[in-house]
Amino acid sequence: FSSMILWTDEATFTRRGIFNSHNSHVWAHNNPHTTRQRNFQHEFRCNVWMGMLHDRLIGPFFLPDRLNGESFRRFLSNDLPILMENVPLQFRQNSWIQLDGCPSHYARQVRNWLDEHCAHRWIGRGGPVFWPPRSPDLTPLDFYLWGTLKNKVYSTEVISLEDLKQRITNSVTEMQHFQECRTVTNFVLRRCLACIDVQGQHFEMRH
């Protein structure tokens, strides 16, 4: 069943990111007195939507910086079908969609759209199948995708918003060829069972 769920999430990527200074070296015989800028006069960011379905990454799609219910409904109605075009028909017709219940997901117009177009096949706050709040360790985007993606994007310093978006797009394309996606989505079941065993309390996964 977990292989038929479209796991979704949004994350913000900023100029500063998680740049790792260990990946930036300057070699010289004498002290080059090199500095690296940490604070910037001009900041930029982008809001990224991603999905995972079985062994596929869906996206990225760049959402408005200020996401609300209406803009998210338009995304579901107009943009998500385009992102899903290359997904086999079997998955598109039978897949469930999971949302984490943030305010834009819980907006009435979004829930109405999901009820109309996804029938009973959506998981989230106010939906036919409830998704537990404050549970990021249960979704493959949180416990795998975002960390892996940001490590790739911020391997060297980002210089512009266009550069940031291109790095995200290129990194996702590269990750499409990884075999981990199917393994990660299958691993969700173990995490959900562990959560049930402790009746929703905190738990630690042991690999």
From TrEMBL:
Gene3D superfamilies in alphabetical order: Ribonuclease H-like superfamily/Ribonuclease H (3.30.420.10)
Instruction: List, for all copies, the residue spans of the domain called Tc1-like transposase DDE.
Output: 6-164
User: Per UniProt, what is one GO molecular function of this protein?
Assistant: nucleic acid binding
Q: Which Pfam families match?
A: DDE_3
Check the record and name the InterPro entries matching this protein.
Answer: RNaseH_sf, Tc1-like_DDE_dom
Q: Which PANTHER family match?
A: HTH PSQ-TYPE DOMAIN-CONTAINING PROTEIN, TRANSPOSABLE ELEMENT TC3 TRANSPOSASE-LIKE PROTEIN
**What protein name is recorded for this chain?**
Tc1-like transposase DDE domain-containing protein
- Provide the species name: Ooceraea biroi
The organism that produces this protein has a lineage beginning with:
Eukaryota, Metazoa, Ecdysozoa, Arthropoda, Hexapoda
